[in-house]
Amino acid sequence: MTVSVGPTPVHQPPNGSGTVTPAQVLRPHAEEAFAAELAALAAQDDRPRPTRWRLSPWAVATYLLGGSLPDGTVITPKYIGPRRIVEVAVTTLATDRALLLLGVPGTAKTWVSEHLAAAVSGDSTLLVQGTAGTPEEAVRYGWNYARLLAHGPSRDALVPSPVMRAMADGMTARVEELTRIPADVQDTLITILSEKTLPIPELGQEVQAVHGFNLIATANDRDRGVNELSSALRRRFNTVVLPLPETPEAEVDIVTRRVRQLGRSLDLPAVPDGIDEIRRVVTIFRELRDGITTDGRTKLKSPSGTLSTAEAISVVTGGLALAAHFGDGVLRAGDVAAGILGAVVRDPAADRVVWREYLETVVRERDGWADFYRACREVSG
Amino acid sequence: MNGRRGDAGEPLLLGVRHHGPGSARAVRAVLEQARPGAVLIEGPPEADALIPLAAEEDMRPPVALLAHAVDEPGRSAFWPLAEFSPEWVAIRWALEHKVPARFIDLSAAHTLARADDDGADSDGPRVDPLGLLAETAGYDDAERWWEDAVEHRGAGKGDAVAPFTALEEAMTVLREEYGSGGHERDLVREAHMRLRIREARRECEDGVAVVCGAWHVPALRRGTTVAADRALLKGLPKVKTDLTWVPWTHRRLSRRSGYGAGIDSPGWYGHLFAARDRPVERWLTKVAGLLRAEDRIVSPAHVIEAVRLAETLAALRGRPLPGLGETTDAVRAVMCEGSEVPLALVHDRLVVGDVLGEVPAAAPAVPLQRDLARTQRRLRLRPEAGERELELDLRKETDAERGRLLHRLRLLGIGWGEPATARVGTGTFRETWRLRWDPELSVRVAEAGVWGTTVPAAATAKAESDAIGARGLAEVTGLAEHCLLAGLPDALPTVMRILADRAALDTDVGHLAQALPALVRSLRYGDVRGTDTAALAEVAAGLAARIFVGLPPACAALDADAAEEMRGHVDAVHGAVALLGDAPAPGLGDAPGHGRLRARWQSVLRTLSARDTVPGVIRGRSVRLLLDDGELTRDAAARLMGLVLSPGTPPADAAAWIEGFVGGSSGGGLLLVHDERLLGLVDAWLTGVPAEAFTDVLPLLRRTFSEYGTGVRRTLGELVRRGPGAHGGTAAGAPGFDPGPDTARADAVLPVVRLLLGPDGDDEGARGAHTGVTG
After folding, report:
1. CATH homologous superfamily, domain A30-241
2. Which of A209, B64, B111, B625 could form an S-S bond across to A213 if both were Cys, CB 3.0 to 4.6 Å?
3. Where are the beta strands (DSSP E) in B319-465?
4. pTM across the whole model
């Protein structure tokens, strides 16, 4: 599916306990799950490959976009969306530039970066998860203090970060949620990306990146209150913005599928027919997000919230919970109204006007939306 | 191909794509090499006389050859030429080398005589020759194939003619397969071209070069008899036509016109043609320059990376050189940080571009002039240098048309008539104009020729373009009003769409409130004329709804000046809503719609009047408007007033409330005269204001009361002198008047009032009559 929704998965460290086989894990890595496809591609790839790339750029693009090989092997599409995006992303990596994938939550940033790393380097696990507390050690290196105290500073006492290992081995490193990382830690990436070297002043040594090293970072472009990238760092990246699902149908499909999964895990009673409400939620989110009604006739102001697919999912899930526990089990307008209001009105002053305007000029006039209009008027007062 | 210099055998046939920079470059190379004795170009032969103008100093492409029927300027055709058009290159080469240049296509006289130009052609299945070739070459996009195969090839080494030969071979195969490919008219055109080529070859010994669409080359090469060609051309309809050069723009090059093919990226093509070498590097440097000028940080390092990305992308996509698609992707990823916003700027300014052509003053008159002259004759409205006044009675057909003409000319910036205020009567069917024809206006007419060939068409195009370029919302509303006055219904949809868009995105309620009255005026005006104003009514209702939503929050926390301004807006909206309610417009006129709009407005006013954060002047005004509409009883108004004037309210705020309630020219004085309870409240409050606060509220109160008429002020003074608490009966005893109303006599007037106000004016009429007689 185009969009993998949900929180960014936490990966097992590559050399974890070692006792879990791929079949048992909840979610295998891309290079394990699609090992057959990667092998088939590699076998039939006769185009030039950049140094230490497992596949040629053409094959990487095919791996992501899908297609069939001369011998009949079918490659499933990993990313359904504009071809241009994958082409630019692969080309960026091939020109030895770092790649920054931007997008609102739920636009398959992580998914794309994982598959790119798997196809290019055959390993998607050299990962730094960006958080507000990501320390410099996670990007550069740390120390094994027992060894450090026992033997003094040496390369053996050094604990390399995924980035450092990627540099040394000529692999693709990944940084998730780059903008969540504190600014000073972000800045350590500048030397790595421009000089392609990581100095270790404690030892008077350095690790120089070998051919094949590159970095894929992902970041939210609409999140507020995060650490905006400095222009010096930004300049080191080629930026690709991953768009939201193109058609309403695709989005409804994603929401329905995901809601069903979530509902099962939350043990909500199965809801007979919520598809109309889901469609409505998706319509509202899309219209407000795009600033234009689906019939293309009326422009709208957009609220400050992101209104991503992920939020639509949570609105519907919340509505389902309401319907199941307090209502008659059928998802109705009233069950989603409050959730929508909460998702849309993030800034109490400006967004409320936007929402009221939307209610009065669009919802009010629309056929068959009278129940929803009433429900919204009730909750927004 | 054997059309070398001195060889008068076969003509040199150069198949091109119109507006193809690569073709243009190749044409120049061939002409330089072959040096033919005459250059023949696809285009209307009537324009031969205009060719020398192309050499003039102040002729600057893009320009277009404009052909129009003399008797019907609306029927016209354009042949646009940009600097990078092969045809233009050929003309310039011929002029520079003193070689005759001629147009050889079918006469515009015949082309324009065909009533439905496109309709007849599109009947059969049309063959897209480039699409077929591209498909054969394994491309899914014809444009891209052509770019790769022709336009992106550099000047080329070796034989300059070779690319044309190759293209001709390809086209020959296509023509053999598909014949005329559904373009039936092409056969006639090609016959004409062949005749002209034969003619030229007889006259010219040095051999001739022909520049035409690649599709025609095989047909021109084919040996046919003169008689057969003549037979094809027999009996073609004909109209009297006139041709001239008109300035063109890059933006308009993207439109389909005389040559059929429009192009999407004239700026990019212009760049490809003008760039000496390294087109991609130069282009990205240009983009960087534009972005820097717009305050984006773009360093040379960005340009380097963008070039690398574009080139690698081209390799990944299997193209010989980065095209516009690759460079655009590179600009987006490297220079714009993935954002589409600066990219739109690049597209607008560079990929399309704002280049405007120029034509010398010696170019013949534009059809617009002719159309204007014809209309002036028809309406018996002669241009005179002296100033005179013109009274129009719009109920008469001729006068109405005159008015529309003058309005249209004003839209086009031709200020022949200025509207003047009527001396007599204020009816909507009268218009007064002050007319004066300055010689300079002829120049304006010539300039306005860009917009169209007839006055209505030009005015429509200009109005649409103005709407798109308008900065403020009020500007668009004004334009809508103007369109109605000028009778340009075709421009209205565009103007309305833009109006609706602007209104939707405008966050300033003030702008919206300013726009609404003009819109409602237009709506009523349109009603008078019987114009279809459904779209207008819809937009007006939408605008009103947005104001209703936005007004209460916008009224919070305003300083005195802003509050005063906002009060003006509240008044304006109130008036507009009243009119909008009355307007018998479709979609709104039905009673529930009208009533709903009014009721919603009244609930907004009620919100405003009750909210403490709203400035006093607006609160007072809201109460007053509700009171006047009969939505608030006098008791309720008095209660609200009492609340505001109670000691808890700061005196300045209370004074502002009074100003809003009874101030200005709203006739508030009479209200105080007639409702003593209110006067008593004001009086009690005023006497209770502490001494230190009194000087603060004095200016405001002075402003409020000084605007009353003398009579009102005197009556008020007398009432106050009679003392507070002097209530009802005793107080109203003005000399010579009975203290209470004589209801019997008042009732006697009612039938007449009812008659005057009409049978439907029931509740309002009755209320009006009631307020009139009470007191």
Report:
1. P-loop containing nucleotide triphosphate hydrolases (3.40.50.300)
2. A209
3. 388-393, 417-420, 430-435
4. 0.66
